[in-house]
């Protein structure tokens, strides 16, 4: 079978699929995601719930033989359209590199080289590697780029530029690095949106928690009377704890009045949200209070700000904090879709040329 004809339904594999943010974006763009790889059990359960037709390798990628997987998936070298992945980035996280080093010593930092093992075996037409900005300054990505060049891949000039997801349809301020490579020439950059989507666009139509019959939206945590009073008095639509009279400040804020000013802050309806992190439903972790209601955003609202579908299921088997971590760690599907759409256009044009 001609490999281009086989690729009329453009195929992809997601190597570090987590809860499925990258996969969602690929599917939205038009890719047929064949398989995923995920080690963590609850993230894998979430992925399987939402993508039941995919083959999921629930394993440590370091233990997998890409040649065996290629045989199981019935691919020959060069037939896979896209190999994509976001290797765990905790070692590059800004929260762990405040000493100004690019990364800390973390064995997960080297998982990007396991992605390259799959590149060597599958020889995919295109490759997508997404990660935090710090990876763009790390020697590992230079080694990866050098090997991709040696293997005949063409990489765009903007590969190591840091991008803000708000420029690509995500109602959230989030900086990411995305490397895209093709064996068949440059892939165009997606056009930035004219007007960023806002918090209002993402969550203003959600019902008051308790009225939705959605387990991810209806739960509001109990808080102390002091915390409730503080939240009630923070000005609506973008207010901060700095706006409060000192008698409502917490002891820790009195000790460090200039530290972490976004904590216990409200989002603004007409702006993008701050970066959705693993602490996204805890107002002590950032500006995660609802713009109007006296509460933190819910898990469902956090997922919507990440651009997950509104019916996307997240397992609560390890509790709500772990669900928040899965949501915060996920790739925004809309950001991936914007770039994956350009890969689809690139592959489609190649297919047309091959068939003529």
Give a brief rundown of this model:
With 356 residues, the chain is α/β, with parallel strands linked by helices.
Task: Describe the structure in your own words.
The structure is a single chain. The protein has 12 helices and 8 strands. α2 (21-29) links the parallel β1 (11-14) and β2 (32-37). It is α/β, with parallel strands linked by helices and 356 residues long.
Write down the overall mean pLDDT: 89
Q: What name goes with the CATH superfamily of the domain at 3-193 and 331-355?
A: Vaccinia Virus protein VP39
Order of helices and strands: HEHEHEHEHEHEEEHHHHHH
CATH architecture group name of the domain at 3-193 and 331-355: 3-Layer(aba) Sandwich
Radius of gyration: 21 Å
Backbone shape: elongated
The major pleated sheet works out as: 8 strands, mixed
Examine the coordinates and then state which fold CATH places here, giving the name of the CATH topology of the domain at 3-193 and 331-355: Rossmann fold
What is the CATH top level name of the domain at 3-193 and 331-355? Alpha Beta
N-to-C CA distance: 16 Å
Instruction: Kindly state the number of beta strands.
Output: 8
Secondary structure: helix percent = 25-40%
Count every helix, treating DSSP H or I runs of 4 or more residues as helices: 12
Question: Pairing-aware structural class of the strands and helices?
Answer: alpha/beta
Could you list the spans in which at least 5 consecutive residues all have pLDDT below 50?
1-7, 91-104
Quote the beta fraction: 5-15%
